Amino acid sequence: MSRSGLSKAAVLVVVLAAAPLAMPQHWVVSMLVFTVMYAALGSSWNLIGGHAGYPSLGHAAFFGFGAYSVALLFPSDHQLSNGLLPFAILPLIALAAALIGLPIGAIAMRTRADVFAIVTITLLFVAQTLAFNLHGLTGGAQGAATAIAPFNADTFERPFYYAMAVLLLLALGAGWYTRNSKIGLSLAAVRADEDKARGIGVHVTGVKLLAFCVSVAITAMVGGVWAYYVGFVYPQFAFDPLITIGMVLITFLGGRGTLWGPVVGAVILVPAQQYLAYQLGGSKLYLIAYALVFLLIIRFMPRGILPTIAAVRRRRSLAATAATAWPLPTAARIREGRSA
Q1: Are 113 and 183 within 8 A, CB to CB?
Q2: Which of 100, 115, 162, 289 has the fewest CB atoms lying closer than 10 Å?
């Protein structure tokens, strides 16, 4: 709880609160909704993929679970007297996602690294296949419509934006607590060497499952807000692998395992993606830019933007300290030494 950390948190809250008021245009607020959405998704993925070092590629399955939960609880023929009601049930969706994620995580985390990534992305495709084939529940390929939000048309996007902002703050709070607690130390030990961590008494299974359940719970809530916002849920979009790729990419871009990395990555990447998608239309050529960004990160900043900047500052600070402690001899001192 340093003064610098509190200042950053206060600035973030003020910026999040003021952004839709300072830029009230519908298209701008809509872009802000998706930017904050991916920042929340990246921050939640960072709990398991960054702090624990388990690169999950199946988080979109829980995103889709949250989306369809809202669509089933508030179908299109449901008349909402209070538009905030779908937001109120998000904690129940999070609890359900965590309970579902518990046995899934217990099984998947028997594997590690690339095998874990393959297992989790298989989960995503299984969930997508179920959504396509359970017509009575999900509507199949025809999708499922949600209830129309009874918000003012002039400020229609704002409630969704602020709901996403609250989830972002929740994900950042979970990340901050993880970094500054024994859980974070345990996850760092697991990421460094899981076998050694177990040997020194770390409750490896417990901390991994805790991080996984919290991560998927926040992801499911974000999916619920997204479904309520777009108004219609299709399997190919709710369980889209590109959602997972997006949250992973912004986390790697900003800095995996850092608190602010996913936020930085989302602020850079999502507006760029929205612009390219608008310019290139439905061709999906913007995915080439995604691949290019990922290659550039791996080549020039494998640790991400924030860790790279921190490393540069640290090297400069060490160099300045060394120069102060061990000043180079002046030309006069060199001449005196030679004459002696």
Answers
A1: no
A2: 115
